Amino acid sequence: MKNSTFSEVQIIKILSEQNQGRMVNEICREHGISQPTFYKWKSKYGGLDVQQLSQMKELEKELSRYKKIVAELTLENAVKKDVIAKKL
Q: What tens digit of pLDDT does each residue of 4-51 get?
């Protein structure tokens, strides 16, 4: 999958142009994107501002850290159960 040439902050600014009354065709032509790309971005980032985006990124990092902790503890628990089972 091709990486976007636009940062998430730029995407939010592009989407906000529609709220200012500009037509989607004009916005897409100006920025060199297709309409399906615009609407895909709108479904993903619609209604967000830059501050909310940064908060969402922080929460995603925190969630990934918690998932890693849970995976490590689950593995440790499974190893302990296997050791106990072999002793019996």
A: 788 888 999 999 998 888 999 999 999 999 999 999 999 988 888 888
pTM of this prediction exceeds 0.85: no
Domain ranges, ordered by start, for the chain: 1-48, 59-88
3-class secondary structure per residue, the chain: CCCCCCCHHHHHHHHHHHHCCCCHHHHHHHHCCCHHHHHHHHHHHCCCCHHHHHHHHHHHHHHHHHHHHHHHHHHHHHHHHHHHHHHC
